Every structure is written in structure tokens, then in C-alpha cells.
Amino acid sequence: MKIGVVTFPGSLDDIDAVRAIGFAGADAVSLWHGDRDLMGVDAVVLPGGFSYGDYLRCGAIARFAPIMDTIVAAAEGGMPVLGICNGFQILCESHLLPGALIRNDHRKFVCRDQRLRIDNANSAWTTSYEAGQEIVVPLKNGEGGYVADESTLDLLESEGRVVARYLGANPNGSMRFIAGISNERGNVVGLMPHPEHAIEDLCGPGTDGLGFFTSVMQSLAVS
Amino acid sequence: MARVVVDVMLKSEILDPQGKAVHGALPRMGFSGISDVRQGKRFELVVDEVDLDKINAIAETLLSNPVIEDYAVHVETAVGEVDQ
């Protein structure tokens, strides 16, 4: 089972994502933003970081990288895609996910171990969790405030597409405490916190993040 | 050639923390009577010919994110005329 991780100019967490995929037991394949070929991978992770220096808007320029044409088409065809942090921003800019991420309401960069509740354990990236399960993974962003209009938020809630929600104080002003969402089909997930930094006891707040990567392996195995 | 200006602003209902930070600095500097500040972006495109359909397409797809931002296009000058 092969899971690709795309490196854009300014990606930061691509190596950690590769490592997390390996820990989960899959083969990680490094993909390059300037290529169009997905090298036969079964799923793709868009990692965190500051692609193109966050110029223009976070993710706005990365969205037009050559590899994104292929990824958008593959995602629309059902391939699992996980966007973490900057990857989530890229997925919103690509219109694979609704809404947008804006500057934190308190104007400061946030970096902390964050409690989350998994609200949807049926997406391609969350089947290893129980619905309602609480997990702790790192959160680190300057522009992580999730916004969408009321009708979009209501639709996300009614279709169970809020994948994860912040617990405790709202860390970045996200509407309805939304930390992650999925597309209608559940194969595309965007998440502001960083599960790839919580996959082993050596560092980070624990191993709660590993489930995202084992989930996609389960999803691919049954599909 | 002409210069086309695209102004991009966050929609009024979207929180603008940068504008708020600028607004908060004004009283500290002794400037009073400013009730709000919103921060936006200005793009100046030098074009061979003014093709508004093309400019609008650029503004919609890359320069702005229609989910959170509005844009306005102004044809400002014929570049050659100004240079003379």
C-alpha cells in the first residue's frame, strides 16, 4: 500500500508525514509539486508548512502546482486525500473542501498540544477511531480560523462532515470549533491539527495521531 | 499597454485581525476618531490590451478567494501615455 506525500516549496512537515506513514505500516512515496505523476500511490497527504511562503493567501499558489491537477482529478474519483494544516488550506483553495481558513482571531501564532473530539469516524482517514473519541495532537498555526457561511456550516453538520472539533477554549476562532472536515464522499479530509507529530512516544504528546494513517490503510484494504 | 488595478478586500462579515491590529495602534499614536480599519490587497497588472473577461478570471481564480473576499477592477492608465 503506497501513500504519497507532496513536497511544495516551503513544505515543512513532509518528512514527519512520511515517517508517520511508515510507522503505520504503509510505504511512503515522496511526490514533487512540479510533477504530474502520482507514481501509482493509493492515497495522498498534503503536508503542513508554508508553501510559497504563504504569499497571496495560504495555499493559493500551491493549489495551481502541476501535481494538484492530478490530485484534484484523483480525489474527485475517490482517492483518499488528507490535507494537514497548510494542506487543509490547499484543499479549500482547490475547492475540494468548502470554506476557508483565515488568520487566528487573537492574531498570535498558536503552538500547543490540543484536545480534539473525533466527530466522524466513517471518513477514509478516521475509521480507526470511535465517534466521540477524544485525542490529543499538536496544533500550530497562524491562519487556522475555519470560516464558511451559515448554510455551508449547517450542511457540514447535517451530513456529519465535521470530522474533528476543538475541545476546551477555541484555539484560533474557528467557527463551531471546527478542526477538520471532509468532502461529501468522505475520501477527502482537511485537518488543521497535526496527527503526524503524535505517532510515537519518543516525542510529542503521545500516539493519538497514528490513527489517521492506519485508518486510510483500512479504508483502502476494504475498498 | 495599460495598467489595471485589482483591489481585493475581505468580505464585510469576515473577521479582519490585521485591520483590527492597525486600528488598535492608532489611539496609542494619538490619532482619534477612526472607528474602523479594514486591510486589503492591491494588485497592479500591466497588460498589453484591456481584456476585462481575462482580468476578471484572474481576479476570481487567483488574486481573490470568493469564499472570503470581494474584488474590484479599475482600468487606471494607458501606460504609454503616462510615460510621455
CA-based gyration radius of chain B: 16 Å
Mean pLDDT of chain B: 92
Measured between the Cα atoms of the first and last residue of chain B, the distance is: 13 Å
The residue ranges of chain A in which pLDDT falls below 50 over 5 or more consecutive positions are none
The counted number of beta strands of chain B is 3
Report the radius of gyration of chain A as a whole number of Å.
15 Å
Name the beta content range of chain B: 25-35%
Question: Could you characterize the architecture of this molecule?
Answer:
The complex is a heterodimer of chains A (223) and B (84). Chain A is an alpha/beta fold. Chain A contains five helices and eleven strands, in the order E-H-E-E-H-E-H-E-E-E-E-H-E-E-E-H. In chain A, strands 2-1-3-4-11-10-9-6-7 form a nine-stranded mixed beta sheet, with helices on both faces. A two-stranded antiparallel ribbon of chain A has the order 5-8. In chain A, helix 1 crosses helix 5. The two termini of chain A are 12 Å apart. By secondary structure, chain B is of the alpha+beta class. Chain B contains three helices and three strands; from the N terminus they run βαβαβα. Chain B has helices at 17-28, 52-63, 79-83; strands spanning 2-10, 40-47, 69-78. At the A-B interface, loops of A face helix 1 of B.
